[in-house]
Design goal:
about 300 residues, alpha+beta, Jelly Rolls, Arc Repressor Mutant, subunit A, four-stranded antiparallel β-sheet, 11 helices
Length: about 300
């Protein structure tokens, strides 16, 4: 029986390999930035924001996407993506350590769902941590975002006295604008507000670190598993398992960096009863095992 060739793992990209020089932030220009990412699928250990100011191209993030002037694409750490055709694109790539979000305050941490009977915004952390394929801000917000990225890039490039504080200040302004756009104008926000998808994502977020199934989530929000699976896939482009896995992987990365806990302990802490399953999932998402990922980040 003929065996299907095994797919090679995606190339792992770190902030250091992109020239961050030990800082948790990096901004590079499109086109002509150095170093050039290797061809093929990529997995970054950092959160990536693509701000496209001119041109057209194609890429892949969960699915093939068209890239246009005025787009902002968000790719979370650990999610496979690939430039397919950069065409004549111009703009910036902003990369930052996901742990920087923790420094912005408690509003960036998960919240338990509240049944207040009022219209509820989409879970901000789910949207920002997981990312959307594309944002298209209005003219005034677009101008602010482009200005903030340009200033952030200049601070990091010129490396003057106080660069870390100044760069962090521009980073906070940029992230604030992105979060406002996500909350106000994200493509999935209208259908999620106060509805089934909002409640399901909030429940996943609040219970992601313990064993959780599609059936559990469906029971919590009062619908059948098949209906919930279809609605979430249709409105977000992701499955319940995708959302659950990304929350768990984000927490696993935090534990690997911030604690000395064993891989077995971390697997249990992030909701996996089988450490082998955890390692296999982590490697499929990041291209390396949890132990190797920790060692690479601590060098």
């Amino acid at each position: 029986m003929k065996r299907t060739p095994q797919r090679s793992p995606p190339h792992l990209v770190t902030l250091d390999t992109m020239g961050a020089g030990g800082l948790p932030l990096r901004v590079i220009r499109i086109p002509g930035h150095r170093p050039v990412p290797p061809p093929g699928p990529l997995v970054s250990t950092f959160f990536t924001v693509f701000v496209l100011t001119a041109g057209r191209g194609r890429g892949r993030h969960l699915e093939q996407v068209e890239l246009h002037e005025g787009d902002i694409h968000l790719v979370p750490a650990g999610v496979e993506h690939q430039p397919l055709d950069i065409g004549n694109l111009e703009g910036w790539i902003v990369g930052f350590d996901p742990l920087l979000l923790r420094s912005l305050g408690p509003e960036w941490l998960p919240e338990s769902p509240r049944d207040t009977g009022k219209t509820k915004p989409p879970p901000a952390r789910s949207l920002f941590v997981r990312g959307l394929l594309r944002l298209r801000p209005g003219p005034s917000r677009w101008r602010r975002i482009v200005h903030q990225v340009a200033e952030l890039e200049a601070e990091l490039r010129e490396a003057r006295w106080g660069v870390e504080n100044a760069a962090h200040a521009w980073f906070v302004l940029l992230v604030t604008e992105l979060l406002r756009e996500l909350q106000e104008h994200a493509p999935i926000a209208p259908s999620m507000s106060g509805g089934l998808v909002h409640d399901a994502l909030a429940y996943i977020e609040a219970h992601c670190l313990r064993p959780l199934s599609l059936q559990d989530v469906a029971a919590a929000v009062g619908c059948t598993p098949s209906h919930l699976a279809n609605v979430i896939r249709k409105e977000t482009g992701l499955t319940v398992g995708d959302w659950l896995r990304e929350h768990r992987m984000a927490e696993a990365r935090r534990c690997l960096l911030e604690t000395g806990a064993s891989i077995e302990t971390i697997a249990s802490q992030v909701g996996y009863t089988d450490v082998t399953h955890f390692i296999r999932t982590f490697r499929r998402v990041h291209g390396v095992t949890p132990r190797a990922w920790r060692e690479q980040r601590r060098r």
